[in-house]
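Extended Data, panel c. Modelled sequence:
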Amino acid sequence: RWGSGSSSLQPVDRGGPSMADLRYVCVYCGSKNGDHERYEDAARALGAALAVRGLGLVYGGGGVGLMGTVADSVLQAGAPVIGVIPQGLMDMEVGHRGVTELIVVDDMHQRKAMMASRATAFVAMAGGYGTLEELFEIVAWSQLEIQDRPVGLLNTGGYFDHLTAFLDHAVAEGFLRLGHRDLLHVADDPATLLDELLSRPS
């Protein structure tokens, strides 16, 4: 079972409202801001869209790049943020110490499992290798019916156009079924994407 307890998990409660009955969206995104302002704008818009829908954020716990931007946006709108970060990254001082709850784990595997265990839905936005790895792991788990929560791709400024074209190519070449391709929901507007994901039956 995802998120099963481990003696190595070290929760650091930052206070704030009770989070037991809230729903959280797991966001995967870059630890850099990118070279265009539109990516930070999208991160701020996604954070605001989460909060206005009464949703919290669970994410990789960073205070830098788009990770920090989306977390700050959610916090500024009054919604809770759970950050999950490996000890090694905390030691590098990239953790966001202002989040509602900061959970420090031993490694990346524990980080991903803990994030997934808290999530109602998953959204990937612009990022690099780490973001793509997290995205494809969770959508592969959807394909294998290990998990059934919806997965979305926020395609800001066409950032993922080549990726979605590749997935269509994989379907055409017989390596991916169309039904599995459609497990990944794509939109260029944060509010539209969230509404699509949250309208899916649980």
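Residues 34 and 65 are 8 Å apart (CA to CA). This feature is highlighted in the accompanying rendering.
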